[in-house]
Amino acid sequence: MSFLEYAPAPESQAILNLRSEYGLFIDGEFREGHGTPFASISPATEKHVATIAHADASDVDAAVAAARRAYDRTWSRMSGANRGKYLFRIARLVQERSRELAVAESLDNGKPIKESRDVDVPLVAAWFFYYAGWADKLDHVGLGAAPAPLGVAAQVIPWNFPLLMLAWKIAPALAAGNTVVLKPAETTSLTALLFAEIVQQADLPPGVVNIITGAGETGAALVGHGDVDKVAFTGSTSVGRAIAKQVAGTSKKLTLELGGKAANIVFDDAPIDQAIEGIVNGIFFNQGHVCCAGSRLLVQESIHDEVIDRLKTRLSTLRLGDPLDKNTDIGAINSAEQLERIRELSDVGEAEGAERWTAACTIPENGFWYAPTIFTNVSTSHRIAREEIFGPVLSVLTFRTPAEAIAKANNTPYGLSAGIWTDKGSRILAVADKLRAGVVWANTFNRFDPSSPFGGYKESGYGREGGRHGIAAYLKTAAPAAAVAPAPARKTVSKGATK
Amino acid sequence: MTRLAVPKTYKLYIGGAFPRSESGRTYEIVSAKGAFLANAAKASRKDARDAVVAARAAVGGWSGATAYNRGQVLYRIAELLEGRRAQFVAEIVDAEGVSAAAANAQVDTAIDRWVWYAGWTDKYAQVAGNANPVSGPYFNISVPEPTGVVAIIAPQDSSLLGLVSAVAPALVAGNTVVVVASETLPLSAISLAEVLATSDVPKGVVNVLTGSPAEIAPWLASHQDVNALDLVGAGALDWIDLQIAAADTLKRVLPPENGPDAAAPSLDRITAFVETKTVWHTKGLI
Amino acid sequence: MTSTQIVPGERAVALLGGEANDANLRRYLHGIPGVDAVGLEQRAAGLGTRSIKTTSKAWALDRIIGLVDLTTLEGADTPGKVRSLVAKAVTPDPADPSCPRVAAVCVYGDMVPHAVQALGSAHGDPDQGKIAVAAVATAFPSGRSSRSIKLEDTADAVAAGADEIDMVIDRGAFLAGRFGQVYDEIVAVKEACRRPDGTYAHLKVILETGELNTYDNVRRASWLGILAGGDFIKTSTGKVAPAATLPVTLLMLEVVRDWHRLSGEKVGVKPAGGIRASKDAIKYLVTVAETVGEEWLTPHLFRFGASSLLNDVLLQRQKMTTGHYSGPDYVTID
């Protein structure tokens, strides 16, 4: 037998106790939506997972109204210490139900269980734990004493890290004293609804967290709602642009975490084996459905062939298949639509003259799959070097000097993340200085932490999530512009004109 | 016989030079009492384009200068303003029709505000940045950096103070600026440009356009190589349209402000036009 | 048993572009890309999350047994102790004749005759289902004696019937940058492994990674050991903590992989010391398979230096066979 064909090691689904239908979570309870319910399927099998309610405009109204009531009557009046204790409760409940959440996430999203189990869900708990502690320390956020919450936050999140993006949104909003209406992505509502159960278990006051499900128009109705004070969106740059236009002229505060086309720069003195791992982790983590994915590999020309050779060898050990198998490295593409986009852009890459290499993988019969793919001979003008593919597809470009690497890395309207691989500390710092990206990973990639601000430059959006910056995005100063103004009194020290 | 005065030709300030508008247009600037003061250049969209090109070219040098150096350069402006205060006072008295005392007060405040901001260059990063205690063997630090080219519609009801209040904070972090001056009170802006031109501020760091904000602002709002838009003085324009135009490239936008406190000095005006960059590095002993 | 017939001096000269002296070795070893400790440890931890179940686990447990160098290296060792060890090596699980034998027994040099005698007809090439005798040599574990003593130590063990010599490198010389001295000593020990018939005892080069301390040093020492003609590179003596770790073993496997890419030659790896649980040993198998390939999981290319590991594997094996959890009274002590 071949040892490397590890026997199946599926994570048990017995831990899941899913309902066949899920309603909207408004004002502390599940209720039916007024839109037509839709099916959520598992992208690995195309099998039905649950029927999800569809919120229409009246449901959005109800959810925003519930959030407003909860804000006015309860949450904004509660002590920070008590808000914090609720968030600590949520953090603990997430930990307690972590395996269940991980299984649900992999089932619904298609990501490998090892990622949902070891990355997504632990970070969700960490995010709530981190922001719980901020709730009674808002004076130290950096906005002066007693900063005020904004009110009702409308939050729209993507399908690539469903529960983690929920945590990124909800934890700081609640810690700051806002109430929220959150809309998960249409294809990945499940864990948000399990989270609603956690909210119930935590006995959070009704209306503080509302989860409404639906597609794009539900999100647009939420973002455009007149009684919303804050809009936070993570997703594509095109939708982010539309939201920025939608809220133009309003007093809604806006944070956007959008697309990316990150350069992962490998210098010839890089710790090579770790760099290979970093390249793999950078683009094949979560099937490349990562806004900060290292989708453009910039490798120094002198080591190009060696890096590609090693990379191909390494990719041949990646295991594609059942997301619930504990040995799966590459899970399913989240939807047929996304798969189509990946295929289309890859075909364009080939047509443009880039050289395509795909790891030998057995593709399962059902479900949506895309084998890890590398394009070499890519130039900066190719579409696969410019457009976000959001899939397991790596475009490889070369450079000769650090200056060229920086220029190529920055040659994009995006600016979310970047990677640097070199053994030379001074070069890391200098290159990091010059990269126009909100997160720079040096000799590592795709690391996330609740204390670490995350967000983009340029068309990758604005605002930061994580850390002190992340909670500041949900607060305003108590007395705008008063505290920092210099004393107006002046003693004349002029040497010139007198008057 | 009294000496005949030599009046000044007020031109644009782009890339360290004082060109006329490429369109050849000027418009008449009159005093508060309606007397002719000057023919100011009426900038066109192409002048705005040139200004953005100049501002972009200056980003590397200005943002790459040390914070200490930027502080000194900005402080130097305050010194020069102090030396030419009589000129500014006279311009303000003429243009705004205020008393000499009021004009003096405006100049004083403008100079002091410039000094206040100059002192921030090497401090704001310490206040707005962070060392982050991430859970793992990493060095992790968040530092603010300039966003790039900032287009500013200056407050329209102030000759000098509004302009300074909007321009100085944008410069602190290392951004470069294209500012559209007050349409009716533009002369102090050009006089400020003359101060900048004779100071140590590199060419292109500040570019001053005079003319019609309504005409120029849309070109700046939609310009793809502009990173941020300060609409502080755009209250009378179709500023929602400007925001919508700015959204196409997801510019960072500050809304219009009205009243005498418009663009009041604050750290927020500095951090509005910075990007927080977080750098991770592994920490390994062995 | 057979051994690679490489002339280490020639390949070193070819690679270094000159004699294997301090300067050339330093230039070469310091030209190898560095190791990022965090990334290496993360990769190892990632490999450690592989879930090996059912048929794969059954295969893995048997394979682990077949890769064990069952070891006793105590000052209190006696012929009786060695006989007992050999009996365990030959019949790890008396209740289950299908249980494979270990690869080798590993003893001090003076115990080699007793091991050879006790093995009798079972003595031989582990690739042929027999059990080899490995002897530690060269003033194991510290290596602090004169060159001549080390060589004599080696020659004695080979003459007494040792099939494999586990030598220690001079860590002091390595850390002081005297790479040439380390290299020369390995070459000399290799020569002392030569039998009268011209064949060589297999040479395992113990780096004592716990004393080399840094991953960069481990990587350089691995290259040095291979350049000088080692058939195996081995992590540790078991007398210094930390002994074998998964990241260190991964790193050594990466060197072996790179050497194979460069030369086409296959060098073995032996993590030793500290591997006590089957679960951990399976992580090593995964690491080998996914780093250098599954073909390395044979006795002439991979070994575990262990003693208590064997019984834990047997307990797991019994669980898989019977479906019940076993206990320490159902496996033998040696």
TrEMBL record, chain A:
Q: Which residues form the active site?
A: 257
Which PROSITE patterns does this UniProt record tie to the protein? ALDEHYDE_DEHYDR_GLU
The portions of this protein that span the membrane are none
Q: Name one GO molecular function term.
A: oxidoreductase activity, acting on the aldehyde or oxo group of donors, NAD or NADP as acceptor
Pfam families referenced in this protein's UniProt entry, alphabetically: Aldedh (PF00171)
> SUPFAM superfamilies from the xrefs?
ALDH-like
InterPro entries annotated for this entry?
Ald_DH/histidinol_DH, Ald_DH_C, Ald_DH_CS_GLU, Ald_DH_N, Aldehyde_DH_dom
Q: Oxidoreductase as a keyword?
A: yes
Keyword Oxidoreductase tagged: yes
Keywords of this entry: Oxidoreductase
Aldehyde dehydrogenase domain spans which residues? Answer: 32-477
Q: Which family does it belong to?
A: Belongs to the aldehyde dehydrogenase family.
Its protein name is: Aldehyde dehydrogenase
Q: Which organism is it from?
A: Cellulomonas terrae
TrEMBL record, chain B:
Record-annotated Aldehyde dehydrogenase domain positions: 25-237
Look up the domain of life of the source: Bacteria
Q: Which Pfam families match?
A: Aldedh (PF00171)
Keywords from UniProt, A to Z, are: Oxidoreductase
Cited SUPFAM superfamilies: ALDH-like (SSF53720)
Q: Per UniProt, what is one GO molecular function of this protein?
A: oxidoreductase activity
Q: What is this protein called?
A: Aldehyde dehydrogenase
Organism per entry: Cellulomonas terrae
From TrEMBL, chain C:
Q: Alphabetically, which GO biological process terms does the record hold?
A: carbohydrate catabolic process; deoxyribonucleotide catabolic process
Q: Which organism is it from?
A: Cellulomonas terrae
**Which lineage is the organism of this entry classified under, starting from the top rank?**
Bacteria, Bacillati, Actinomycetota, Actinomycetes, Micrococcales
Q: Name one GO cellular component term.
A: cytoplasm
Q: What class of enzyme is it?
A: lyase
Q: In which pathway does it act?
A: Carbohydrate degradation; 2-deoxy-D-ribose 1-phosphate degradation; D-glyceraldehyde 3-phosphate and acetaldehyde from 2-deoxy-alpha-D-ribose 1-phosphate: step 2/2
Give the molecular function GO annotations. deoxyribose-phosphate aldolase activity
Q: Which residues form the signal peptide?
A: none
Catalytic activity from the UniProt record: 2-deoxy-D-ribose 5-phosphate = D-glyceraldehyde 3-phosphate + acetaldehyde
EC number assigned by the record: 4.1.2.4
One Pfam family for this entry, by name? DeoC
What InterPro entries does the database record attribute to this sequence? Aldolase_TIM (IPR013785), DeoC (IPR011343), DeoC/FbaB/LacD_aldolase (IPR002915)
Give the keywords, sorted.
Answer: Lyase, Schiff base
Q: Identify this protein by name.
A: Deoxyribose-phosphate aldolase
Q: Give the family, as the similarity comment puts it.
A: Belongs to the DeoC/FbaB aldolase family. DeoC type 2 subfamily.
Top-level taxon of origin: Bacteria
